[in-house]
Each structure stands twice: as C-alpha cells, then as structure tokens.
Design a protein that fits this description.
The chain is an alpha+beta fold. The chain contains 1 helix and 2 strands; from the N terminus they run E-E-H. The protein has a two-stranded antiparallel ribbon with strand order 1-2. It is elongated. The mean pLDDT is 79.
Length: 76
C-alpha cells in the first residue's frame, strides 16, 4: 500500500486506509489504521550534508522530544 503523509503530520497521528485492512471470510476487508512514528534521519546531522542553520534548527527540534527510542513503543 502506498500512503501519502499530509504535510505537517506528527508522530502519533493516525491515518485510515479504507478497504486495505484484514481480510474477512464473511465480508469485505476492514480498514488499515496507520500510526505515524516520525524521526529525522541521522544522516541529516552529518557535516556537509546540510547547512549549519538547518542543523541548528534540527537540534532545537530534537530537544523538544524525549530522548528514548521512537520505536520502543511500536506494537506489531
């Protein structure tokens, strides 16, 4: 399934993809619910990849979040 993430979306937002969920023997498939887990890639922090102003902005944003792993609460 290809999913378009709306601009400005944050971690925790849930998106519904109609008819793409679990197949049911007694009827049509349900809806797929996607919960976003967004994190800026580590390579964006590497010197030479982005300019200093962008790097400083990313560091300020990172300070707003808990330092624990963003994926530690994922359930499969």
């Amino acid at each position: 399934v290809t999913l378009k993430i709306p601009p400005g979306s944050s971690s925790g937002r849930r998106l519904r993809v109609a008819g793409q969920g679990v197949l049911s023997p007694s009827g049509p498939p349900g809806d797929l619910i996607v919960e976003l887990q967004i994190k800026v890639p580590e390579r964006c922090k590497d010197p030479g990849v982005i300019d200093e102003q962008t790097r400083a902005a990313l560091e300020r944003i990172e300070q707003l979040y808990d330092s624990s792993s963003f994926r530690s609460n994922l359930r499969w």
